[in-house]
Amino acid sequence: MSGEKLVGIVLVSHSAEVAASVAELARGLSGTGTSVPVAPAGGTEGGGLGTSSELIAAAAASVDRGAGVAVLTDLGSSVLTVKALLAEGDELPAGTRLVDAPFVEGAVAAVVTASTGADLDAVEAAATEAYSYRKV
Fold it and tell me: How confident is the model at residue 101, as a pLDDT?
């Protein structure tokens, strides 16, 4: 399936450890043989807390398989950084979309949905729907 066009997922967090852990969790819970391209983009280049446009752009390029890239973010400035990259127009692969979804639940839903070969609209819808997941 390596030639299959799959939606790529980028997980942007202020912490490299959080981004990597959520990526690992989402991959592990997808439970399929299809390997969805998922990349964490957490922290700064120096390993500190924050966001890095360079790390986000590199992560998006690494998961681009021609079906679009869904970007999920954790907190305020990560959203602003992704919006700025999208506004630039040439920093992220064509078809990159900022997805308004809860970070953990949305990431799992996005990866599971992308693993079915779904398109970017379906991946975004599944991730966004995670806002309605009730815990009690």
Answer: 97
